[in-house]
Structures are given as structure tokens and as C-alpha cells.
Amino acid sequence: MADTSNTKKKRFKKGAEKGNGDEDDTEGEEYDVEAWDTLNKGFKQAQVVLEQNRELIQKVNENHRSKIPDNLVKNVGLIQEINGNITKVLEIYSDFSVNFSDILRQRRRTGNGKTDSRG
């Protein structure tokens, strides 16, 4: 089992922790924990904001269906919040894309996926 206490420099083999005897075509394929953690963190951050937007869109739809003038006015602020959240999601994707690319470039510089001692 891989020690993940220092995930920045760890690699693990897919299937190594299964212990169930099942074999597949990917047995022994290596994954860079830092790279996957970067992707996972970014997707989780984006998912939180997207879930907020889902809830805001539901509220906008309810307000629209109600045709109550006050509710329609509230939609202006809700739609502005949705737009702001879309910008947040774009920033999250952009940031983790850059971070992921940096990790891959570092791995290539240090020998096709081997970690660099600089950390």
C-alpha cells in the first residue's frame, strides 16, 4: 500500500491496493498522485460552485413561474450571482489547468515522470 503522507512525490500503481485478485489491462499502470490530487481538488471546487448555480437556477425558475413582480425583480440579483459563479468556475478550471500543466512539465524535465528533489 502506498504511503500518501508525502503525496507531492509519491506515485502508485493502479490496482496495487485492490487485494481482490482481479486483474485488468491497467495493472501496473502508474499514476502521479500530485497530478491526480490537483485535478481532483479542482473538480471538487468547481462542483461546489456548479451546485450553487443549480440551486440558484431552480430559484430563478420558481420566481419566473410565479409571475409575482417582486420575485421577478429578485431574479436580477440571482442571475447576477449565477454569472459571478460562472466566472468563478472558469477561474477554478484555469488555475488547476495551469497547475496540472506545471506538474507535467516538471515531470518531463526531471525524467519522464520521475519526481524532482526540489519539491
From TrEMBL:
Localization terms from the record: Nucleus
Domain Protein EARLY FLOWERING: 31-110
Organism superkingdom: Eukaryota
Biological-process GO terms, alphabetical: entrainment of circadian clock; positive regulation of circadian rhythm; rhythmic process
Main location: nucleus
InterPro entries in the record: EARLY_FLOWERING_4 (IPR040462), EARLY_FLOWERING_4_dom (IPR009741)
Region called Disordered, residue ranges: 1-30
Keywords in alphabetical order: Biological rhythms, Nucleus
Any single GO CC term annotated in Swiss-Prot or TrEMBL for this entry: nucleus
Keyword Nucleus: yes
Membrane-spanning intervals of the chain: none
PANTHER family cross-referenced by the UniProt entry: PROTEIN ELF4-LIKE 1 (PTHR33469:SF1), PROTEIN ELF4-LIKE 4 (PTHR33469)
Family: Belongs to the EARLY FLOWERING 4 family.
Protein name: Protein EARLY FLOWERING 4 domain-containing protein
Lineage of the species this protein comes from: Eukaryota, Viridiplantae, Streptophyta, Embryophyta, Tracheophyta
